[in-house]
Amino acid sequence: MSACLPSCNTCVSLFLLSAACPCSATATARVITPMPSCFISERCVPTGARSHAGRIPARPRGCCSNEGRGPLSKSSAPQQASPAEASWAHRARQLDRYRWKMLRERHGLPGSFLRMARDALVDFAVGVRARICLGFSGSGVLADTLPCDTLLLHSAPKSMALQRKNILIDAVRARGWHLQEAALLSPSLACAKGQLLAPAQAVPLRYLAYAAHAQWLVARYTPRVLINERNGSYHTPFLRLALAARDARLLHLAHATTLESSRRLGMNDYDYYGVFGHSSLVALQERPLRFGTSTVVLLGSYLADETYDLPVADPAIKTLLVLGVGPDREKEPGYLRTYELLRDWAQRHPEYRMLFKRHPRSRARFWSDAAERLNNVGLLDTGCTLAEAFAQASVVINIMSNAGIESGLAGRPVIHVNAGNDVDIFSHAQFFGPQVRDGEELSRQLQALEQDYCKHVEQARRFADYHLVYGSQGLAKTTQLIDDLLRGHDPERDFETFELPAAG
């Protein structure tokens, strides 16, 4: 194998060869040729910034520690970057290594080379397009700006259209802060819409579209705090650099637990990373590969408020609430079998009412058909909130949804039903018994639950506490964190925080 390394190295170097962008304010004539990580021992961040991961530190920073750093001033970032770290081109090279390591986690050496080369060619082509667009943009200074205190950056235009974060937007604005919304665009769409601005420093051409879109967002809105929600975006390192140049902060808010094995959760290049609770923190710490460093803040869910403080339900109403999965998962055989299992069970048990709460992006065609055929099956309206859905039910059926955690806040016992081969990432079995894979087991667990309903309500509340800090105060605590950052206060005063270094 060692004999073939020079030729492989040369092949990838040719594909990754790209000059520092000449449109940048500090562009030079140098050529940047990053190498795959299997040939370079350099880590994603300097070695001195790393520490062991895999468990919660014994002495966290924050309200549970006496080692506070004092108030956060505008001139002091939570993690000071070295001169090399502050280089946009250097971060791009680190990003190359990170992408290479992600490929090597799943593919052999030849397959990784081919995929790296393919991705580099695509990024290079988009970079050429971005360079042309910037050439027509004139002075590189935005004439139309929308200054704000906080910019909420949605993961995509379609996510922004769902308006799921209106509860957070209203809460921040109620505190008197000027909040603007924008959507993160793909590199191609950013070029098409002209949402590009020459980055402050030279970057390789393959990352120009990412860096230029990040620079455009920061220059257009000039936020003091940018709230990001997209996991795994390659825009993230450049957003953080552009914000740091203005003494602004990048806050990433998890919109779900971080328990999944998704590679997107390896992106960790934020000033602050707000997560649901301790289970999410441990999952992040145990990831073998992380890019960048962040300060994790145990925050709870910004979608959780006092509307989840519901009275205990009467089990005699015999109403089951099924929490649907996303539209991509609904097409998979395991989830389809689970839907069929539940529908067939409802058909055999007309004494029970079964309600279905669809995922916000799902059209719920399966359950729309089931509701037309069966009198005891109902499809909840898209305008029905999760708390309103819980108020109508005595038991929640969770397949693989983060909404199952909120059921504990509402005091609704959970039965975990999944006919597929998924790992129980939420640890349902620890609180509610074994996973249900057939109708007979569902009937057995439901009968046991109804015989001691109050006990199962308490188990549901413990389940929520396991995954969520602050319970139904998640929205209030999230708003408080944003307020602290805007006022220049150190989050350690009011929150439990942990340093999360790079890994891999």
Automatic annotation (TrEMBL):
Protein origin, superkingdom: Bacteria
Biased composition (Low complexity): 73-88
Swiss-Prot/TrEMBL keywords: Signal
Coiled coil: none
Keyword rRNA-binding part of the UniProt annotation: no
UniProt signal peptide: 1-27
UniProt keyword annotation of Signal present: yes
Region: Disordered, residue numbers: 67-88
Record protein name field: Capsule biosynthesis protein
